[in-house]
Amino acid sequence: MIPYGSLVVFVTPKGRRYIKRLEEGQDWHGNDGVLRAAEAAASRYGDVLYTNTGVPMQVQEATLHDRLKGLKRQTQIIYPKDIAYICLRLGAGPGRTIIEAGCGSGGLTTGLSWFCGPTGRVVSHEAREEFLALARRNLQWAGVGENVELHHRDIAEGFAVSGADALFLDVRTPWEYLDQALAAVRPGATFGFLLPTVDQVGKLLLGLERGPFGDTEVCEILMRRWKPLADRLRPEDRMIAHTGFLIFCRQQDRNADFLALRPLGTRERKQEAARRARLEEDNAEE
After folding, report:
1. Residue 178 and residue 211 in contact, taking contact as beta carbons nearer than 8 Å
2. Domain spanning 6-62 has what CATH number?
3. What's the pLDDT score for residue 286?
4. Cα dihedral across residues 156, 138, 70, 68: positive or negative
5. Which residue spans of the chain are classified as CATH 3.10.330.20?
6. Do the annotations mark residue 108 as ligand-binding?
7. CATH superfamily, region 66-271
8. C-alpha to C-alpha distance for 177 and 183, rounded to whole angstroms
9. Which of 122, 134, 247, 252 has the most CB atoms less than 10 A away?
10. Is 126 annotated among the ligand-binding residues?
């Protein structure tokens, strides 16, 4: 039995996927006919049901991946492949407090809420009220959000909480908010950023090297599916390639003795010399 109120996925023989909330008395109507809500509620996940026109439909449980793909969008949302890695790098989980800024349509917010669970806390900030309203509706639709606080707030004024375990910025100029970010987290916290262009990543890295940040990583995640044919296994013709740059680092005080013992090659020594020259120039200007 599938309880009413559950999010279910109906899959057609042609591979079309429809994610719907199962409500009593509300039958599903599609191009392939009508699927009775009572029949779906009496079935189990994995069963095959038939519409009134005799078309078979598979019934599946809506996973987090399904829910993320079903969100209503007014903004470019973060892809599931990126959300998964972001949640891992930020350590999203029970008892953790994660700050987010730039929630947009609420894609990452949904993932963070899912992973943090009842004992975790997600504190999200959005400057545009219409996006905040959409994120709230999406969280409710996806069946999460009880552990989420949504704030209509300009983060230039600071974040709504302090002492958080991790912080993620999905804003255009994150280097302008590093001081506010540091004030919002506990020592040693993890930071994450999403940026679309190389130029923006460069500006962020310059900002990070001027502050107490370390363990920096810049990456992109590419996803290539393979055709699941045992005797003709080969990659799909298309893939989900570059969707954005992900940058992660930690709050980390710099220590001269620690830095002096790092093994550096010729290229790394030149890069370190250039970094110090930039810092000296910044200090001279101040």
Report:
1. yes
2. 3.10.330.20
3. 63
4. positive
5. 6-62
6. yes
7. Vaccinia Virus protein VP39 (3.40.50.150)
8. 10
9. 122
10. yes
